[in-house]
Amino acid sequence: MPHVQTPSLRLYYELEGDPAAPPLVLIAGQGAQLTSWHPELRHLLIEQGFQLILFDNRDVGLSTKWQSGSHYEISDMANDVAELLDALEIDAAHVVGQSMGGMVAQQLTIDHPMRVLSLCSIYSAPSIEHLGDDPEVWAIREQEPATERESAIAQYIERESLCGLAEYTPEWIRAHAEATYDRCYCPEGADRQMAAVRSSPDRTLGLRQVNVPTAVLHGLADRLIDTSGGYATALAVPGAELHTYADMGHQLVPSLFGDYVRVITRNISRAQERVHTHA
């Protein structure tokens, strides 16, 4: 299986698309594995002429798990991405992150500005101030993790349903939940990631220094990270585009895949035009 050994951990990764195409890193959200990026969305991005770099963040999937009681921050996870690019001998890449992955993408752009060609932050935020405060959401999100397969799958479906799964069939949801559990079940790692989200400092000042083309996407029906997080991100980054969607929660929905790809591709085109202008 493809792993890279960085100075601090082993990261599992996959590459999809033409190796000669511009690299596009996809960073998954809290507790999510690289398989959380829908195959159809990935296919559409590859059709646009990108090589996708997908990986399991630390503490989930097939990457290194931290010991109980360990602590890290979003900046450490951003360093993981920079070290992955080092191992793959990629100087710089376009970066797309969703939720916590958007936070990691933001921090990567702040801390390693020469490694990021363009940034797309999806239903994310510059700080925890924008986490939703719906008591029903957090009562479900913060349940004690299940200890056996069937209850863990049911719990996963209940949590993901909060995000907005109306466009997905029950059969697809069930199959995805089973595959996710069977690939790796590590609720302790997801909890450590959530602790990293909560303990990491506000990125607003750093985002004001970002000078790569940036697109921000957010659903107006998001119950986990308030839409204010998308507005705050877009306001902080000079020249950022903001795209909001009325019927989108905290989930990428199939009917909008084409528009997500359009926005991401146009944002990348802005970066490529800038390179050509300064060449």
TrEMBL record:
<keyword id="KW-0378">Hydrolase</keyword>
<dbReference type="InterPro" id="IPR050471">
    <property type="entry name" value="AB_hydrolase"/>
</dbReference>
<dbReference type="GO" id="GO:0016787">
    <property type="term" value="F:hydrolase activity"/>
</dbReference>
<feature type="domain" description="AB hydrolase-1">
    <location>
        <begin position="22"/>
        <end position="124"/>
    </location>
</feature>
<protein>
    <submittedName>
        <fullName>Alpha/beta fold hydrolase</fullName>
    </submittedName>
</protein>
<dbReference type="Pfam" id="PF00561">
    <property type="entry name" value="Abhydrolase_1"/>
</dbReference>
<dbReference type="InterPro" id="IPR000073">
    <property type="entry name" value="AB_hydrolase_1"/>
</dbReference>
<dbReference type="InterPro" id="IPR029058">
    <property type="entry name" value="AB_hydrolase_fold"/>
</dbReference>
